[in-house]
Amino acid sequence: MTTLLEDIQAYKEQFKQKAPKEKQEIMAKATQELKESGVAQGLKAGDQVPAFTLPNAAGEQISIQEVLKQGPVILTFYRGGWCPYCNLELKAYQRELSSIKEAGASLIAISPEKPDASLSTKEKNDLQFTVLSDDSNEVAEQFDLVFKMPEDLIAVYKDSGLDVPGHNGNNDWELPKPATFVIDSSGEIIFAEVESDYTKRVEPSKVVQVVKETKSK
């Protein structure tokens, strides 16, 4: 079985071979500018998780406080089901789901997609964990993850037929940075990984290890 990082590397190699050079350069430039901008740094270990309630893919309201009563939570923010790197990450978390449950934790994934789009993502990837819809990015804002896409990158997405606002139900072309948090049952963030480069993700097995080490203390 391959790791998430191996899957991502394989996809990146395919993209380099297939995508027009100009498109690759615009995307790389946007990533570098986001890194240098200093925006959306994300919450850090030691911060308290904001209180929030969001709908799942079936439209049911899920409260983070209620889930934390059952134990630690792994919370991962992704851009949307249209993002190949996000899908690779979600599938990798699905492979680790039994280990997450054995460690006594819950797994929640959040994107700005509308519930019906989240349902499509959940079904497409056969996800057996909770997928929440933050279609106004309000919760992602509370986690300091939201940035506005630059115009040249928006043009690339439009040329590719990618309708991000259509998935999200708004017209702001704003996205959360990919981010993963481990939250203990008291609501304290004990692990935080926030990436400006959307092609980089933390390996789920590493996150599971954080949970196990926390439980053993």
Automatic annotation (TrEMBL):
GO terms for MF: thioredoxin peroxidase activity
Keyword terms, alphabetized: Antioxidant, Disulfide bond, Oxidoreductase, Peroxidase, Redox-active center
GO biological process terms on file: cell redox homeostasis; cellular response to oxidative stress
Catalytic activity line of the entry: a hydroperoxide + [thioredoxin]-dithiol = an alcohol + [thioredoxin]-disulfide + H2O
Cited SUPFAM superfamilies: Thioredoxin-like
Gene Ontology cellular component annotations, sorted alphabetically: cytoplasm
All copies of domain Thioredoxin, residue ranges: 43-216
Known EC number: 1.11.1.24
A Pfam family the protein falls into: AhpC-TSA
Family membership noted in the UniProt record: Belongs to the peroxiredoxin family. BCP/PrxQ subfamily.
Function, in words: Thiol-specific peroxidase that catalyzes the reduction of hydrogen peroxide and organic hydroperoxides to water and alcohols, respectively. Plays a role in cell protection against oxidative stress by detoxifying peroxides and as sensor of hydrogen peroxide-mediated signaling events.
Full protein name: thioredoxin-dependent peroxiredoxin
Source lineage: Bacteria, Bacillati, Bacillota, Bacilli, Bacillales
